[in-house]
Amino acid sequence: MSEWTIGIIGGSGLYRIDGLEDAHWVAVTTPWGPPSDDLLVGHIAGVRCVFLPRHGRGHHLGPSDLNFRANVDAMKQLGVTDLLSVSAIGSLREDLPPGYFVVVDQFVDRTFARTKSFFGTGLVAHVSMADPVCPRLSAFAADAARDAGAPVTQGGTYLAMEGPQFSTRAESLLYRQWGCDVIGMTAMPEAKLAREAELPYALVGMVTDYDAWRPEEAGVEVTDVLQVLHGNAALARQMLLRFCAALPAVRAPSPIDRCLDHAIITAPEARDPAMVDRLATVAGRVLR
Ligand SMILES: CSC[C@H]1O[C@H](OP(=O)(O)O)[C@H](O)[C@@H]1O
Ligand SMILES: Nc1ncnc2[nH]cnc12
């Protein structure tokens, strides 16, 4: 049994968190290079939280330039036990209009220009991604969003695209045919790396637009996205407050806390010592 430390990765439009008590910015270095920004450590409703603006303060990093490994490693270095991502998303469904909060539970990864694993030559691991989000954390997040007064859909498939350009109409229509519900540019490989780091992960997407599949509508523009996000800012803040306030005092273990028990395939004598060193934070539990 242990206590919670909630990592919050804030996406587009979410570059700081008001209401974080005793807050201070902390610079963290990682073996993977620099994270997107310093991390803001403080408390919400008595729960220790670590906030990272995914694109940096001022939004100077695009989705393909994010150092996802450094972001997850930095969270883990600061003692994060569970990771909550808050993202802007496009909707691929008529019944998920702008303003909706979608707590996603599946992903289709169509990104292609990103480093997707902490592991590789010298230390190979294969984690399961069958169930990519933590059901417990996702349920807490959905309840909190509902309590805050947001329209919430629990469950949905997020298509992760490379970007930075938005989709063509043909792509948008194709993703709908695939059964995807929402679209964004950042959840992958973030969710995969969180799993490799044994961090339970949940994603609350805030629908900002209908992407490009509606024939009568022009495609999405950044200004549309930001307008909806600014309108949602108070709701997002309330959601985080209620999320922390409702967490049980004691954190019961999650199976994800130990998912590397079954994942590493490289024999101990064949492991690259430099890789073992680099993985100290992420996988030290099973490598020491
Ligand atoms: C500003 S629109 C496109 C941009 O917004 C989303 O970012 P995030 O997931 O970090 O909220 C989307 O993935 C794109 O990066
Ligand atoms: N339509 C869209 N496509 C990709 N990422 C987004 N983020 C917000 N809206 C988006």
Automatic annotation (TrEMBL):
Transmembrane segments: none annotated. GO terms for molecular function: S-methyl-5-thioadenosine phosphorylase activity. GO terms for biological process: L-methionine salvage from methylthioadenosine; purine ribonucleoside salvage. The record marks S167, V222 as: Important for substrate specificity. Pathway: Amino-acid biosynthesis; L-methionine biosynthesis via salvage pathway; S-methyl-5-thio-alpha-D-ribose 1-phosphate from S-methyl-5'-thioadenosine (phosphorylase route): step 1/1. Substrate binds at M185, D209, Y210, D211. InterPro entries: MTAP, Nucleoside_phosphorylase_d, Nucleoside_phosphorylase_sf, Purine_phosphorylase-2_CS. It comes from the Bacteria. GO terms for cellular component: cytosol. Pfam families: PNP_UDP_1 (PF01048). Keywords: Glycosyltransferase, Purine salvage, Transferase. It catalyses: S-methyl-5'-thioadenosine + phosphate = 5-(methylsulfanyl)-alpha-D-ribose 1-phosphate + adenine. Its EC number is 2.4.2.28. Coiled coil: none annotated. Residues 5-243 form the Nucleoside phosphorylase domain. Phosphate binds at S12, R54, H55, S87, A88, T186. Belongs to the PNP/MTAP phosphorylase family. MTAP subfamily. Homohexamer. Dimer of a homotrimer. Catalyzes the reversible phosphorylation of S-methyl-5'-thioadenosine (MTA) to adenine and 5-methylthioribose-1-phosphate. Involved in the breakdown of MTA, a major by-product of polyamine biosynthesis. Responsible for the first step in the methionine salvage pathway after MTA has been generated from S-adenosylmethionine. Has broad substrate specificity with 6-aminopurine nucleosides as preferred substrates. PANTHER family: S-METHYL-5'-THIOADENOSINE PHOSPHORYLASE (PTHR42679:SF2). This is S-methyl-5'-thioadenosine phosphorylase.
